[in-house]
Amino acid sequence: MKPFKIEVPQEVLNDLATRLKQTRWTDEPENAGWSYGTNPDYLRELVTYWQNEYDWRKHEAGINKFPQFKVDIDGVTVHFIYVKGKGQGTLPLILTHGWPDSFYRFLKVIPLLTESFDVVIPSIPGFGFSQQTAMNVDRVADLFNNLMTKVLGYSTYVAAGGDMGSVVTKSMAVQYPENIKAIHLTDVGYPNGTEDWSTMTPEEQAFGQLIQQWFFTEGAFNMIQSTKPQTLGYGLNDSPVGLASWMIEKFYSWSDHDGKIENALTKDELITNIMIYWVTQSINSSIRMYAENARASYMGGLKSSQRVAVPTGISLFPKEAQFPKAWADRMVNVASFSIMKKGGHFAALEVPDLYSKELISFFTNRK
Amino acid sequence: MEVHKHTPKFPLSNFIEHMVYVSGSLPIPYLKELPDGGINLVIELNDNTVNTIYPGESLQQKHEVKRAWISGVQKQAILYKNNTDSSIISVRFTAGGFFCLTKMPITAIDHVGIEAEDLLGNSFRHLYQRIINASGPAEMFALIESYFLQYRVGHSTEHEIIRFIDQNIDKPIDWLVHKSGYSQKHVIHLLKKHTGFSPKYLQRLNRFQLVVKEVQIQKNNIDWFSVVHRYGYYDQAHLIKDFSHFSGISPRDYINSQLAIEANSLVSDMILKLPT
């Protein structure tokens, strides 16, 4: 385990500036808004800001204020933030991010959680500063349990996550219930067509239909990332504007903002998250994780698909796909189910106060 | 310089990665062969040429070989004196391939430059005579293939496990062990028996080879920052230290060697231009 600080060489930033300047823009339908995908007007506005006002060094320093480490676990190098809690009796908590976010998803909640927790925020292998070895969620769960137990020495701990981080967290709970006392999720998984609909409540069936419809209108990214990620990877790794376009559409669609994305996330936050993928050139290995999950699903199934027996706290934010409690009961052992008034899929970044209160309330009540 | 590369067909491809014929020489004093986890058989086609190996990198300690020799379990780069009157065929075995074919214990080849005839006996002497009388590289490759096909090339569960581990060496060791169906202790024993290496060392070698390939493709355009993180190095110093351990030179010197001689792209596992 070795202390780590991000120090992006200036030539990487200079190269980025050149690429942004030389962007070969597409044609753009008039008044397209977000109806054909990324909003052309907003993308241009974001790129102009990226070129003229955004300051990576400021954000790099902001991230580096938190203690970061790299460690070799089982032959795979994992990057993580590790902030010990204040005082005695703090609970060890591992927070797992998803896609297209990164460890950056949880940066704002760290100071809000350290009264109660020792906070561990790893980068999933394939993402950011971890080794770019794409692996399925069950393998990631193995590594992260080893991180908590063998590397950091906790015999028991709690875990939370969102998006792909939810799936990793569920897998950890299924595989290592002796180590994990409780988990917290903001999404619990989605119907994938293999369920027996005759056993589902009308609310669950309605949710299943919603997800089917969602896959047709919003799910193409998931399909290509699960089947032909390499085809996509070259373009995204070569063009910062292409990468930004691919990612911010998701942030727009999945966060809570009433039509103006910056009501949920600032330009600086959006760009810093993109920068983590850009400077490490990790977009290709990050999207390959979808393909690894799909392959593992076909070839015997993932542990993360099994029902979680560990007590689970759920906070359902309004811009999350609204699953009924019966669906949550089917997926996990629901110990707490909160309907939130504000926030979306990236709750920790959008509404850090609300999200951290949910974690503190759920986990500390279970001490 | 004339270079021909040949990749054997299945089933021999499970054991031999490729063969390279190199004739003629460049005006360079020394060359280096990089390690990749497999064993190398080098056949000198000029009967009277003596080749010099420096096993410990230092020029003080040298070892002379004739005709054909086995690289041994190659933990690090091997330094050779360049021969201007040399023509060679290099047979690169897959990880564990040499052991699986010949059943020669790894302990018998744990040092650099063992005469092939001493290991493989009369049958190899006959092969050598036929090779040097062959009409050209294609016939030589065919003779070598026929020779190794005489060994048992059928199914071996142990070799399948070694191949699986070698092909997935970038995955977590626990997972590789789990997939093998054996205990960790037994998997380590199998790997050592077949390759001479521990899983950890094979992982390091694999990572080194990936960086070598990045350099060969990107050359001066390489983005070291992303390479450091892509392959799981802690930082640039870690990468440089690891690279130097396997190659004996720095990554920068390796780029320079790649830029110095065009022919390097033909023999990718060699360094033809060493830093002075």
Automatic annotation (TrEMBL), chain A:
Coiled-coil regions listed: none
Organism: Chryseosolibacter histidini
Family, similarity comment: Belongs to the peptidase S33 family.
GO molecular function annotations of the record: epoxide hydrolase activity
SUPFAM superfamilies found in the cross-reference section: alpha/beta-Hydrolases
InterPro entries in the cross-refs: AB_hydrolase_1, AB_hydrolase_fold, Epox_hydrolase-like, Epoxide_hydro_N, Epoxide_hydrolase
Keywords: Aromatic hydrocarbons catabolism, Hydrolase
Catalytic residues identified in the record: D163 (nucleophile), Y290 (proton donor), H345 (proton acceptor)
The protein's name in its UniProt record: Alpha/beta hydrolase
UniProtKB/TrEMBL annotation, chain B:
One Pfam family, short name: DUF6597
Annotated InterPro entries: DUF6597 (IPR046532), HTH_AraC (IPR018060)
Gene3D superfamilies from the UniProt entry: Homeodomain-like (1.10.10.60)
One example GO MF annotation: sequence-specific DNA binding
Domain HTH araC/xylS-type: 159-257
SMART domains membership: HTH_ARAC
Protein name: AraC family transcriptional regulator
Upper classification of the organism: Bacteria, Pseudomonadati, Bacteroidota, Cytophagia, Cytophagales
